[in-house]
Design goal:
With 128 residues, the protein is mainly alpha-helical. Helix content is 86%, strand content 0%. The relative contact order is 0.11.
Length: 128
């Protein structure tokens, strides 16, 4: 495992541990009466959206030797980063029912944009 892979693994572990700690502290604060259940949900799921944005931002920075793969990673990075930020913002500010459906739609849209771009590149490569 090279240094870049180790750094990526450390970042992933930090996100996972950070979200677990946030969930535990939020639950403790709710039990003490400092925050309500909706706030716990918004904090934890909003952190998940920020994690999606972080991974989306990191994606195009990974080394890929193929030009088409770099293009796909760039589009995937933007689409996932933006969808993750929308997801987190909805859970921070919108009513929970709207945040659930809107956040789900945002992440699915990011995935659909990436998948559609992959298929368009593939069709263009076959035509050439």
């Amino acid at each position: 495992m090279n240094k870049e892979q180790k750094d990526e693994m450390k970042g992933s572990l930090a996100w996972g541990i950070g979200i677990l700690i946030l969930a535990l502290l939020s639950t403790y604060a709710r039990r003490q009466g400092y925050i309500d259940g909706d706030t716990v949900t918004r904090l934890v799921i909003g952190a998940n959206g920020l994690m999606i944005a972080w991974f989306g931002n990191r994606l195009p920075k990974a080394f890929v030797p193929n030009a088409c793969a770099r293009k796909v990673r760039r589009v995937a990075g933007w689409s996932l980063a933006l969808s993750g930020l929308v997801y987190a913002a909805l859970y921070a500010f919108a009513p929970l029912s709207m945040a659930f459906w809107g956040g789900t739609a945002a992440v699915l849209t990011g995935i659909a944009v990436t998948t559609g771009y992959c298929f368009s590149l593939r069709a263009h490569a076959k035509a050439a």
